[in-house]
Design goal:
The protein has about 300 residues and is an alpha/beta fold. About 35% of the residues lie in helices and about 10% in strands.
Amino acid sequence: MSGQANIATIERIKKRIRACDYLCVAQLYLRDNFLLKNPLSYDDIKPRLLGHWGTCHGINVAYANLKSYFGDNPNFVFVLGPGHGFPALQANLFIDGELLKIDSEATLDYAGLSYICKNFSWPDGFPSHASPITPTVITEGGELGYALANAYGVALGHSEKTLAVLIGDGELETATAIDSLNLRNLMDGPNNGKVLPILHLNGYKISAPSIYARKSERELNELIRGFGFTPIWIHGNNPEDFQEALRKKVEAPFYILQTEKGETGPNRYHLAHQIPLKNPSNNFKELEELEKWLKSYNFGELFDPVGGFKI
């Protein structure tokens, strides 16, 4: 890959992350005025705010980088552990046209944008967590811990498959998730596919630091090595670092993506877990903060109401 092409690739990844971050926030908050053509008003805000923002940016970073690296390879599968970050998964499926394949209203224009944003966590609309109505989702996303075991099950006997599994750091505390790391020892051999675990180390779960966020890098590295993996750290959300990590040729890679919980939003850490701004429908200061947050993504540069996404 030439340096010039590489720069273009990095810029595309950054634009996709921005677009998906905006879509996450719009899904969580807005029932109208989805492109902010008018100043944001109380009436634009959903009467009940339900969903999880804190993990979304990290999901978007992982998805955008993996999508760029593996392209349209039909044998590549992305497995999401923290299904409560469903706004991010839906944003990516919307951009890729996957939702349109099963829902004719999810069109890649303003009408489709309005449809997915208004109907997120809305009566008779989309759920707040990943669910089987979503393309390729087989379980309800509120129960953590099974993603890695499911991925190894898909890889068993399918040497053509490569599965990247994003695991939350709180999720790795579950017995199911941590014990699933032992499955690597059963998967050696030419008849099985590759499973690429990615630990999303964003530091916090619901209201406290995760156990793994309190470990030093050395401690975490030794734990991962003890299961037979080679730890590869990705500090922050720079696509160049993520792409470099994916290019490393090591046996049994285990990626550790370290970002701040709630990054690019108004709050960090446990304050960003669900809805960072609780009352923008009746608190003017929070309404202003929300408008500033949405405008920070410059979504108008990335989306045309008629032509769709420019990324």
